[in-house]
Amino acid sequence: MATPALDSSLLTRRGVLAAAAGTLLLTACGEQQGQRSDEGPATSTADPGRHELVIGASLELTGRGAALGVLQQRAMEITVESLNLTGIPVGNLRRAVRLEIRDNRSDPREAARQATELTRRDQVHALVGGTSAETSMAIVEVAQNLQVPFVSLAAGDDIVLPLAQRTYIYKLTPDAGDVARRMARLINSLEVRRVVLLAADGLHGDSGVRAVRSALRDLDLELTRVVRLPASGRSFTSAARRAAAGGPDGVIVWGTAPDSGTAARELRRAGHRGPLFFDPGAVAEDTLIGSNAAAVEGAYAVHPACLAASTLTTTTTAELARRDFTYRYIQRHGSFSGFAPYGSDAVRLLAAAARAATSVDRGRLRAYLQTQVTEGISGGYAFAPIRHGGMERDSLGVYVVSQRAWTRYS
């Protein structure tokens, strides 16, 4: 079995990104390394008289998306605590960050209603949220119409496309094409030739189907079948049986937790014994626990490098911040999930935009978001006027499930 080669050009590009970012995001926003706070979640500021950067968040705290939405709430609260130790320098003021968090119950209509309410009634300066493509797309329409910056936490390339109609919209998750190409190289190195794609229903799955077809074709790998999972809440048994029919060498599961783990379990029940490959949406505690554990043991996932944050080799500002965030997350919640840092990065990016803009005006925040090149907790971002979405491709790594944990694969 061959070992995937590391692309030296990506390392160089990532090094340039980290050097260019420097202290732009992490230090400039007042991140205090090594400091701890035992206070509760920072959803409001201690001093109501201070000027504020107000961020509205519509998250899936209940319903099918709760496996990912709750992680974002935790991450955002931890990060706000950290930033509010000193406040954010915005012009001649130091502003505190205040979160207005709502539970959209995994319902796109509720997400749209909340986005409207947060923008018009609560006068938030920016919106964050939507861990599913459907809730994010509901918020996109509101944010664009009301001209308020929106940072999406969901996967799905269409969230920020077409750019001319998404001028206030940004996305943090990796682009599907980058994930699929990294996955295809892994599949090729493992000498897996006949592949079936089991893709989620909806926009995220649509992006995956397009990206996987292209990536496998480029490496002359055979995509023997595409099977779509039914809408959440329905049985995956039939879809899994169709995916496992004919004995494919490997199956790609392109979806999000909790559906990814359920699909893996049904594939094993249907008789598939070959390798499983997950996109980043699977990387949550729910995928590894309970009846999923045996089914996903040995499975691979492509995911940003934050999943393997080291506590020993921290040599850059970004690595120190990543270690500090991971430490505080585990201290408070007992374990760390690789999907969590997106919420943290959303807050940090907005704080950095406010600092650079010397204002919390919505239009200026939008303009300065698209100039940020920075290394966040999840990975590297390089926004530009012609690119509002996706993590830098060299932030991606490969992981394998070993004893109910995601372990870096080399």
Automatic annotation (TrEMBL):
Query: Which keywords accompany this UniProt record?
Result: Signal
Question: Which superkingdom heads the taxonomic lineage of this protein's source?
Answer: Bacteria
Could you tell me which PANTHER family the record lists for this protein?
A: LEUCINE-SPECIFIC-BINDING PROTEIN, PERIPLASMIC BINDING PROTEIN OF ABC TRANSPORTER FOR NATURAL AMINO ACIDS
Q: Which InterPro entries match?
A: BCAA_transport, Leu-bd, Peripla_BP_I
Which family does the UniProt entry place this protein in? Belongs to the leucine-binding protein family.
**Full protein name:** Amino acid/amide ABC transporter substrate-binding protein, HAAT family
Keyword Signal, does the record have it? yes
